[in-house]
């Protein structure tokens, strides 16, 4: 026999439901339209952020959904922090922090590479010239032999 629920059971049930209220979730297209109405963020952008791990999502019945809290968290993760340039030139030097640069290291590495390249080219050129001279010597000898022995 089924008993009718009393007021205590209904109150307990409503407390349980109110404690476990689910935050509204939106599919990616709706989330993009709702939270970025005139912005460049689309459903594809949100999928990219999910793939990169910056946007938390849920997959329900094969559909990807996100919450407003997840969008807020993504926005804080994706904030662009202004970076200080490592080196400056020209008029921007006033705003640039002072310090050493790696230009001298790069220059010396480049000079070493150029010296190696030059040495290899000279060796190669000598080798080509030597082969050419040997070929010319063989051709001269062959020409003299044909002339003398006919």
Decide which structural class fits the backbone.
mainly alpha
What spatial order of strands do you see in the largest sheet?
1-3-2
- Roughly what percent helix? 55-70%
The count of strands amounts to: 3
Given the structure, what is the number of helices? Answer: 5
Task: Quote the distance from N terminus to C terminus.
Answer: 131 Å
> What portion of residues belong to β-strands?
5-15%
Low-confidence stretches: none
The main β sheet shows up as: 3 strands, antiparallel
Spatial extent as radius of gyration: 39 Å
Instruction: Average the pLDDT over all residues and give the rounded result.
Output: 76
How would you spell out the order of helices and strands? HEHHEEHH
Overall shape: it is: elongated
Structure in words:
This protein has 150 residues and is mainly alpha-helical. Among the domains are: 22-77; 118-150. It is 59% helix and 7% strand. The protein has helices spanning 7-19, 28-35, 43-52, 68-77, 103-149, and strands at 25-27, 58-60, 63-67. Strands 1-3-2 form a 3-stranded antiparallel beta sheet. Helix 2 (28-35) crosses helix 3. The mean pLDDT is 76.
Keywords:
150 residues; mainly alpha; three-stranded antiparallel beta sheet
Brief description of this entry?
The chain has 150 residues and is mostly helical. The chain is built from five helices and three strands; from the N terminus they run αβααββαα.
Secondary-structure blueprint of this entry?
Layout lengths: L6 H13 L5 E3 H8 L7 H10 L5 E3 L2 E5 H10 L25 H47 L1
Antiparallel strand pairs: 1-3, 2-3
Helix pairs in contact: 2-3
